[in-house]
Structure formats: C-alpha cells, structure tokens
C-alpha cells in the first residue's frame, strides 16, 4: 500500500472575503481567471474538468478546454456523438471544475448544458487549424478502433480529399453552453480553514451568497 498520509502543504497565498467580492460569480471568475493567468505557472489556465452522468448511470470526469465565458455561462466544444456528448444530451446537469494550484484556488460550477447555435459552433470551428478540423471529422470519439494506424490512415485520406479546399464543420461536432446554477469558489488558507464562498442562482436572476465551512 502506498501511504500518502504525510503529503501536506500550508495554503497561505491569498484570502476570499465577502467584503471584497462582486455580487455575481462571473465577475469573480473573470477576476480569478486573469489573476491566475498573470501569476503564471499554469500551462492551460482554461483547462477544466467536466463531470457528467453517463448512460450507464455512473459519473465520469474528464479534462477539456474552456473556450468562452460570459454572463450566459461557459462554452466548450466536443463531438456530440462521444460518450460525454451523449451523456450530456441524456442528462444536461453537469459539473465543471477548475483547479489552479499556483494560486491555491478551485472553482466548482453546477449548471445545465445546452448545445450552442450552429452559427456559434461554425464560428469557432473556422478558427481551428486545419489539422484540428480534420481530426474532428476523422475521429469517431469514444468508439473502439483497431489501432492507432487506423486513425492515421483515415487522416491521410482526408488530407488528400480536402487539399486546397475549405473544411466544413461536421454536424456531429459543436459547442455546449453550461448555464451556471451554483458556483463555489475555494481559496486555500492555513490550518485547513479554507475560504469557501457559494453563489446560488435565484428566481429573480440575482445570486445568493453564502460562506461554507471548510
């Protein structure tokens, strides 16, 4: 057995107080995101864990990249026919989480996912490098394949097919917008007395702010 009981650190880099936070979570998320980015030490600040309830009834988490956020919510892109895509379309209640160890911060977002419009998906797809566009077409994400060579050979065929041509977005690929209903901000503090502030959406479009015990 690998005993990890002595893995410990003291969290002392910042604090999270009700007197210094905005009335809505998107403004605070924006502040934290750019503070983490400016602080450095994180390769992909927009990397987040997406947790879904699968068709088999089990939760599953995986890391994807956040591509846009606004007052409406958080957008990422995927294959709609993938395991995660099917799970979300079956049960749109999802959880997003960010962990930024350089700033000793976490953000946990509960929300409801819906497909973005085709125009939004088209707009983002057009910004992707050609290799990424072809990858979205060639990969039947989450399906069993015979080998790595199978994928690479299919990609070579597509490269020949689309040489010198515009690459259209496949209909099975696009964005999900996660509209938050609850956002929790976690700031590490000494002696495990961490700061936890939770925003909960209200019917009048305001946010209820509460402090949680660490």
Tally the beta strands: 9
The succession of helices and strands, N to C, reads: HEEEEHEEHHHEEE
Distance N to C terminus:
29 Å
Helix content: 25-40%
- Largest sheet descriptor: 9 strands, antiparallel
Q: What's the average pLDDT?
A: 94
The percentage of residues in β strands lies in 25-35%
How large is the count of helical segments? Answer: 5
The global form is globular
Low-confidence stretches: none
Rg, please?
20 Å
Q: Which structural category do the helix and sheet elements fall into?
A: alpha+beta
Write the layout of secondary structure elements.
Layout: H1 25-39, E1 47-53, E2 59-65, E3 68-70, E4 73-79, H2 83-90, E5 93-100, E6 105-115, H3 118-127, H4 130-138, H5 148-161, E7 173-187, E8 195-201, E9 207-212
Antiparallel strand pairs: 1-2, 1-5, 3-4, 4-7, 5-6, 6-7, 7-8, 8-9
